[in-house]
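Exercise 7.
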Amino acid sequence: MPQPARVPRLGLDALLDAAKSASMHAYAPYSRFKVGAALLSAGGGVYVGCNVENVAYPIGTCAEAAAIAAARVAEGETLSALAIAIYAIGSDGLQAPCSPCGACRQRIIECNPDMTVHFFAERGTMMSLTARELLPYSFTF
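Solution. The predicted structure, written as tokens, is:
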């Protein structure tokens, strides 16, 4: 099995900083849970997104979906995603644990099953898993 592309330490810090910055632009008046995502492409592009809530909850947008869409717009079919970082700010204004939701796990794996997904778990623990590890039984057809 091919090894996942790992973001170098400095690259990971920059990717997390981009995700953190994006989270500050989130529109989250209902949950007050702001999420940012930053996707790194093989071409060196960094594409960010933030969550955008809507009073009709199901039609909100996740940060990961927004970052993937931005990358796809910029790079089109040549997009080769290496990594995505997710950063969340809770209603208390502090960094909060946040892994991608199920729908975003499917979106991420369709970009690249070997892409590295970085997010914070409980107590500030950094998790770095491949998309395949995060969603081992993804939907395909």
